[in-house]
Amino acid sequence: MSKNIPYNIIVASLENTATIDEQKELDDWLSSTNENREIFESIKKTWSKTQLKRSSFNPNIDPALTQTKKRIHRRLFIKRVSGIAAILLIGLMISTLFNPFDNDKRWQSVIAQQQEKIELPDGSIVVLSPGSEIKFPDKFEAKSRRVKIKGKAYFDVAHNKNQPFIVETNHTKTKVLGTKFTLVSDALDKDVLYLDEGKVEFSSLTWFGPKQLVKPGEEISLMNGKLIKRIAINDNLSTWATGKLTFKDIALIDLVKQLEDYYQTPITLSTSLINDLHFSGSITQTEAIDALQIIALTLQLKLSTDNQTLTLSL
């Protein structure tokens, strides 16, 4: 059994790039034992299935091979070597798949100092929250439009069925054709996506990781390697970027909680009798008092202010 399998020379031979000396060395190795010939055929078969190009192939398998000191059944040995070769080649394939920026030569990065709106080369719009970052090419030239983000971003993606739009974080990949959604990625292996329009495919970046389709009104998150999807309890998770609040038959007590979070203004209801009044509609006001005036008029309530607290009453 050979302890030194010439992987680099084997790969060069398979790519027809081996020198005369390398080819002679390989021929000598192949002719030395039938076992070497079987090893070569096994690696050749695995190589042809993957159809990879060599960029760097310099495996160190000596520690694993030195453990195999005793003579074992030839079939078992060949199966083991074939498995090692497959793992090495899959490693090369993973490196290629997870290096999405190779097809676009010039990239730029934007880190938002404050909330910032950016137009991408395809006309898609991205809104970044303060401190968030996006990386994108000067021009989308590959088969897909790829960007990468850290932090919190809202996307309004231009439709192009021939060139899917893909957003990558450190943990997940979101694939769309044209849609609107908010994506939040933190440094603790947790991503959350809320979909406003269209349909997206949300998946983990881990090899053969889980993936799910997401529909409008749904929220999906990645936590500890698992995807968790549910109906969003808040229809306004993208309001921070769009400035538009939308309510569908929501109880007044729940509406007030969302308005307090969005406007960062205390709001009270003077009596529990109005807790279950329901409101539907859209609000684009930039001040809390203007939004409350619309709600008060719609529900025939009174609005008053006291010490910067807004109060709705009968």
User: Given the helix and strand composition, which structural class is it?
Assistant: alpha+beta
Number of helices: 8
Total discrete domains: 3
Radius of gyration: 29 Å
What is the terminal separation in angstroms? 91 Å
Mind telling me which CATH architecture of the largest domain this is? Sandwich
Percent helix: 25-40%
String of helices and strands: HHHHHEEEEEEEEEEEEEHEHEEHEE
Question: Which fold name is given in CATH as the topology of the largest domain?
Answer: Jelly Rolls
Biggest sheet, in brief? 13 strands, mixed
CATH class division of the largest domain: Mainly Beta
Provide the β-strand percentage band.
25-35%
Mean pLDDT across the residues is: 81
What does this 3D model show about the protein?
This protein is α+β, with helices and mostly antiparallel strands. The chain has three domains: 7-97, no CATH class; 107-231, Jelly Rolls (Sandwich), CATH 2.60.120.1440; 243-313, Phage tail protein beta-alpha-beta fold (3-Layer(bab) Sandwich), CATH 3.55.50.30. It is built from eight helices and 18 strands. Strands 1, 2, 3, 4, 5, 6, 7, 8, 9, 10, 11, 12 and 13 form a 13-stranded mixed beta sheet that branches. Helix 1 (7-14) packs across helix 2 (20-32) and helix 2 packs across helix 3 (34-50). The chain is elongated, with a radius of gyration of 29 Å. It starts with 6 loop residues before the first helix and ends with a strand. Mean pLDDT is 81; it is low at 51-73 and 92-102.
